[in-house]
Design brief:
Length: 275
């Protein structure tokens, strides 16, 4: 079994605490992970393979200082939590964000159930633009504040719906899930669709996001947006590929010489399967 270099990971996210499996440690690791390692789909966007091998994920996100999407982000986080000593059960969800109410989506989002002192928590460091910045207690109908937006879970049949509060009287669905354990083959199949299918959003649009301490930074549809908790938006239209690559490096901390960064364009496809 591959072991993560915890010192390198802690250095990557700026964690200086102890590696003890407590709720406080989980909360700090979760927060530092999401504000440091960007959510991004540069590999699918530039026709590069998305490997779910743990060694490849560690090389990309930790050593290579890139980001990734849910299977990579939560795959890495699950391995780290287990190595520290947490009890982790991987789950798989159906995305509801920006979906019509009658649309049933596939199971394409990885999340983690983490058991601490008999209490289940949901960790998710890989959702993107409205991703949670801390673990949430798996309890229904209670509003849970985070460093950004408030969250809650609603019971939905045999499962749960994760909701985000965007205004005092406005709650939006993020995803639905149940508590059946997911396995590597489930993620491999979902990853193949999300990274290669022409109808996948990750093949249609370049998406890079990262929450800051007082805002969310979102690059999508050729625009860079800063979204603040009060709803205020600052938008900037990206003028070309050179500016795009500069933003990836300066705003999201991407390595300037990474092939997926140097070859990234607003519309281009590299037709390369190099990773």
């Amino acid at each position: 079994m591959h072991l993560i270099d915890l010192s390198a990971y802690f250095n990557r996210i700026g964690y200086e605490g102890s590696a003890t499996p407590t709720l406080e440690t989980l909360q700090v690791l979760h927060y530092l992970h999401v504000i440091t390692i960007p959510f991004e789909n540069l590999n699918p966007w530039t026709d590069r393979r998305v490997s779910l091998q743990l060694e490849d994920i560690e090389s990309k996100l930790v050593k290579g200082k890139r980001g990734g999407y849910c299977f990579e982000q939560n795959g890495l986080f699950a391995a780290i939590l287990r190595q520290i000593g947490y009890q982790v059960t991987p789950l798989i969800a159906r995305v509801r964000w920006n979906q019509p109410t009658d649309n049933i989506t596939g199971r394409t989002h990885m999340i983690l159930r983490v058991e601490i002192d008999g209490t289940p928590w949901i960790a998710d460091v890989g959702f993107g633009g409205v991703g949670q910045t801390g673990p949430l207690a798996l309890k229904e109908e209670i509003v849970q504040p985070t460093s950004h937006e408030a969250r809650r879970y609603q019971q939905t049949g045999a499962g749960f719906t994760h909701q985000i509060q965007l205004a005092p009287d406005r709650w939006e669905d993020v995803y639905t899930f149940d508590l059946h354990e997911a396995f590597p083959v489930d993620y491999e199949m979902a990853n193949w669709f999300t990274s290669t299918h022409p109808d996948s959003i990750f093949r249609k649009s370049l998406i890079v996001t990262r929450p800051g301490k007082d805002h969310r930074l979102i690059l999508a549809s050729g625009e860079l947006t800063r979204r603040f908790p009060n709803g205020w938006l600052e938008k900037h239209v990206i003028t070309g590929d050179e500016e795009l690559r500069r933003l990836l490096v300066n705003e999201f901390g991407m390595p300037a010489k990474d092939p997926a960064v140097t070859g990234c364009g607003l519309q281009s496809r590299l037709h390369s399967m190099d990773s």
